[in-house]
Amino acid sequence: MDNLRREVQAAFARQQAGIRPDEARARLLRQALAGARRPNRLLSLAGAVATLLVAGAITVAALLTHGHLRQSPAVPNTVEQALTAGPAAVLGSASDRGFVWLVGDITQPQATGNQGGTITGMRVVVLDWSGKVRYHFDLPHARPGFPTAIQAISPDGTRALLDDGTVVDETGAIIGKLPALAVNGMPANATHWMADNRHVCASFSNEPVAPFVAPQPKGQPNASPTPPEPYTRPDADHSVTLKIFGLDGTVRTVATFAKGPQGVASGPFGDSTSVLACNGTTDLAVVARYHDADTSGGQSSTNMTVSLWAIKLSTGAVVYHQPETRMALGRAFFFGSQNAQLAVEFLWNSKVWGAETDVVLRMPSGQPVPVLDAEPIPDTTGVSADGTRILRRLVDQAHGQTDLELIDASNGHIIRRVVIPTTVGATAVAQPGSSSFMVQVEGYLAYVDRDGGISLLHPDVKLGGAPASVSLPPIAMQN
Amino acid sequence: MSLPADDRVRAQALAGDESAFAALIGPLVEPALRLAYSMLGDRVEAEDATQEALTSAWRKLHQLREGMPVRPWLLAIVINRCRNIRRTRWFHLVRLADPSSRRELPDSTVERLDIDLAIARLPQRDRQALFLHFYLDLPLDEVALALGVSVSAAKARIYRACGRLRPGLIEEDR
């Protein structure tokens, strides 16, 4: 049997010679996530089928299997030429703006088998705002299977809160501990550094949960039926508490709001909350609560709703509340500007079935920035620290291109548009106290100033999704 | 396989954290792609199918029950996606032969040719079971979950496939 097993393995290995999983892994994952944010593919598929029936052409039928979600790999020069075709950015002084973190996985190859590598930690490369590498370090997993994760990076990049409550600086040195903010098993809280880089705002869901029951050993049946979670009861409290934690050990409860029943049905999953922005100077925090309103049993559909609150930090008063609104799938953890005067949320697009729409709200008025709802598939990539600029990505599937737009948040006007003739992703980090960004587009890093000037940066690192590479963190992590 | 993520990462992914989803699913992309390629025999189609399966997994992550292993769940999605592709009119129009028998055999010693052709002639469902168990090293319970059959049925498929590859082998093995 062992001989046959080896022969079969070898035969399958020969068959598999035609693919390159190492090259495809990160790309497929990235494209899959990007695809999930686009209109439901069934619509495209239905359109293609109809065309097939009318035309009866094999070439059209090919569209059925060569999915719309697939993206062509970006031609490097295409991205570079598009980014540098217009005016260059005014870089300013890099030294007084802090740092930007790039993060990536540390992967150990499997000793045997064909499973790819196991992620054993996180690699961090710290840049200054000129794009120069200043520090780099690794954050190994504390123990196998328990990934080390960053909860939040301070706007100036001099602090990062890890999931175990440890605070490290830009060199990786431990400079403090906030044990109350350790994430133990579930994302029960969400954290956000204040603009002073010394305090962390954290939101907590107060909904009632059942005590944890350890599963039975393998082979023994679990207790049946599992009782419903207390938070699914119609009268359950779904309130949220906002607190501020100082690196000096101080803790202040700002407010507990949204007390009492929610008025929206509760599905099997508990609430999550996050702090989109928290700023002492503007005296404002923006908090979101994400709620599973799918009571169908979770088997066929998902109906997530979101509420937003703007809270006055000095008094705890709620100065804005957006009631439960259906949100886009898979886009929890919205974000805001560092001054807390813009909030970005990803909502269900009722005009295009299955698609999402971005909404950028001015806080605390709750008024949306105009124009931004004109496109069916927008992706707000970033908002500037001072709340005056919005960076947005638009995928034009019909023409296979991506538009990157810098928008004036006061009136919705486009300041600069870059057209990249292929489908690309983009991530951004807002520069503290300014209207500028650092942007990553495919394997390129660029500085974008308030007037739309763009300059490529050339850090000595491998950028992108390939193994051993690093990338800008998600927008909600450092902003 | 030691997954790089635990229930906490799963919960974070469920809450919409894309990086947590990447940590949860990232190590499984390669076996998913290999499985898709083994079923479709075309790199581009395998990548398409894998990407769509990943998108589907992201959308359906809430269906992953607590305690259920992620790997067979994702591979089951891949299998379903590939089956759907194989059922399409387009696939049958241009795929006249089974994909696994179309590929080139660059190093065709007699033994290799024998085993390659024997595998190619296996029924699709038996070949899938063999691929999952022998090549991707999935334990039988995960093979069963991925194929949507009982463990005994998965075991039977593997044994039946082995018997077809080497008649008499089962008897020798007992």
The ordered H/E elements of chain B are HHHHHHHHHHHH
Main beta-sheet strand count, sense and barrel state of chain A: 4 strands, antiparallel
Query: What structural class do you assign from the helix and strand content of chain B?
Result: mainly alpha
Largest sheet geometry of chain B:
none
Helical content class of chain A: 10-25%
Low-confidence stretches of chain B: 1-5, 89-110, 168-174
Radius of gyration of chain B: 17 Å
The structural domain count of chain B equals 2
CATH topology-level name of the largest domain in chain B: Rna Polymerase Sigma Factor, Chain: A
Q: What is the highest CATH level, the class of the largest domain in chain A?
A: Mainly Beta
Beta-strand percentage range of chain A: 35-45%
Main features:
heterodimer; A: 479 residues; mainly beta; Methylamine Dehydrogenase, Chain H; 2 domains; four-stranded antiparallel beta sheet; 5 helices; 13% helix; 35% strand; globular; B: 174 residues; mainly alpha; Rna Polymerase Sigma Factor, Chain: A; Arc Repressor Mutant, subunit A; 72% helix; 0% strand; disordered N terminus; disordered C terminus
Plain-language structure description:
- The complex is a heterodimer of chains A (479) and B (174).
- Chain A is mainly β.
- Chain A has two domains: 2-65, no CATH class; 76-209 and 223-457, Methylamine Dehydrogenase, Chain H, CATH 2.130.10.
- Chain A is 13% helix and 35% strand.
- Chain A contains five helices and 26 strands.
- Chain A has helices at 2-15, 21-36, 41-55, 58-65, 76-84, and strands at residues 99-108, 118-128, 133-140, 150-153, 160-162, 166-168, 174-177, 189-193, 199-205, 240-246, 251-257, 272-279, 284-292, 304-312, 318-326, 335-336, 342-348, 356-362, 378-383, 389-396, 401-408, 414-420, 426-430, 437-441, 444-448, 454-457.
- In chain A, the strands form seven sheets. A four-stranded antiparallel β-sheet of chain A has the order 4-5-6-7, with no helix packed on it. Chain A has a four-stranded antiparallel β-sheet with strand order 8-9-10-11, with no helix packed on it. A four-stranded antiparallel β-sheet of chain A has the order 12-13-14-15, with no helix packed on it.
- In chain A, helix 3 (41-55) packs antiparallel against helix 4 (58-65).
- Chain B has 174 residues and is mostly helical.
- Chain B has two domains: 1-96, Rna Polymerase Sigma Factor, Chain: A (Orthogonal Bundle), CATH 1.10.1740.10; 104-174, Orthogonal Bundle (Arc Repressor Mutant, subunit A), CATH 1.10.10.10.
- Chain B is 72% helix and 0% strand.
- Chain B contains twelve helices and no strands.
- The interface between A and B is large, with 74 and 78 residues.
